[in-house]
From TrEMBL:
MF-aspect GO terms: protein-L-isoaspartate (D-aspartate) O-methyltransferase activity
TM helices/strands, residue ranges: none
Similarity-based family: Belongs to the methyltransferase superfamily. L-isoaspartyl/D-aspartyl protein methyltransferase family.
Catalytic EC class: transferase
Gene for this chain: pcm_1
Protein's name according to its UniProt entry: Protein-L-isoaspartate O-methyltransferase
GO biological process, one term: methylation
Primary location group: cytoplasm
Keyword check for Methyltransferase: yes
Documented EC number(s): 2.1.1.77
Entry keywords, A to Z: Cytoplasm, Methyltransferase, S-adenosyl-L-methionine, Transferase
SUPFAM superfamilies: S-adenosyl-L-methionine-dependent methyltransferases
InterPro entries, sorted: PCMT, SAM-dependent_MTases_sf
Subcellular location: Cytoplasm
Length: 272
């Protein structure tokens, strides 16, 4: 029986034993042989991985594996290749940015994606977040409002699939205003919003499945709280929504605005 990638990569996720140079070299050789990923990028990926583990941005094996497998450099602009694994957001063109690896992995971990989960992302951007999620479930859906960016990312994924990245084959992308979710595929077990708004969009809450989790940056421009929103439905059908700060008040986050098709933002448009 073929050994799965997850089984093969187990040694690298056990970081207490794997902090040394040998572990990095062995990881770089393994990924380069198997997937042809660039060696310099793999070194940077492994160094960033150790920092994420240290900071508890990622704690479970499944998310560690998802991070180690995802070629962030493929989603960064040419001019940012050397910066692909920095602890920083990166410009991806069209006036928008991709969040730093620590934030992407905090959000991914807060969702606790199960293999059977249907996931919706609002704000495809570069596609990096979708790519990470695609290692946790094969039901990833993502909506992007900037059409040329959607098209560019569609091409990035098509090329990766052509080069053997079958994991990305099932990612469904569309260009639209994600405020309205994606009703055709609703309900979703997990929803991740990567643009900021001052309220939780009611259509997204509605498209969240019972016992689903949504992670969303909520607050004013430049200073949002990263919320983990859960929707519980009891046996009588009563729905309870709970909100929790992923960073427990230690940190605020800053995401690009949740925009409308006419160029304005959705701030102030929520239920009052
Ligand atoms: N998850 C992305 C981050 C991109 S930044 C990544 O991994 O690269 C946030 C994205 O949200 C931007 O691309 C922005 O254009 C998009 N966005 C903003 N408002 C939106 C809306 N109403 N619907 C869908 N996408 C939106």
């Amino acid at each position: 029986m073929p050994v799965s990638f997850a089984e093969e990569i187990q040694d690298y996720v056990k970081t207490d034993a794997m902090q040394g140079r040998d572990a990095q070299t062995s990881f770089v050789n393994f990924m380069n042989d198997k997937y042809g990923h660039n060696r310099d990028m793999l070194k940077l990926r492994y160094q960033r991985f150790l920092a994420l583990v240290n900071n508890k941005d990622v704690t479970r094996d499944k998310e560690k594996i998802a991070f180690l497998r995802t070629e962030r450099e493929a989603f960064a602009l040419d001019r940012n290749q050397r910066r692909a694994y920095e602890h920083a957001f990166l410009d991806i063109g069209y006036g928008v940015t991709i969040s730093g690896p620590h934030l992407v992995m905090r959000m991914t971990s807060a969702l606790d994606v199960q293999p059977s989960d249907k996931v919706l992302e609002i704000g495809t951007g570069s596609g990096y977040q979708s790519a990470v999620l695609a290692h946790l479930t094969n039901q990833v859906h993502s909506v992007e409002i900037i059409e040329p960016l959607h098209k560019r990312t569609r091409d990035v994924f098509d090329n990766l699939v052509k080069n053997g990245r079958a994991e990305f084959e099932n990612i469904k992308l569309k260009s639209d205003d994600g405020y309205h979710g994606w009703s055709e595929f609703a309900p979703f077990n997990k929803i991740i919003v990567t643009c900021a708004v001052d309220h939780i969009p009611p259509p997204l809450l509605q498209q969240l499945a019972p016992n689903g989790i949504m992670v969303i940056p909520v607050g004013p421009p430049g200073k949002q709280t990263l919320l983990k929103v859960t929707k519980e439905v009891d046996e009588q059908g009563k729905t309870t929504i709970t909100r929790q700060d992923v960073y427990n008040g230690r940190l605020s986050v800053s995401f690009v605005p949740f925009t409308k098709a006419d160029g304005g933002t959705w701030n102030g448009k929520g239920p009052h």
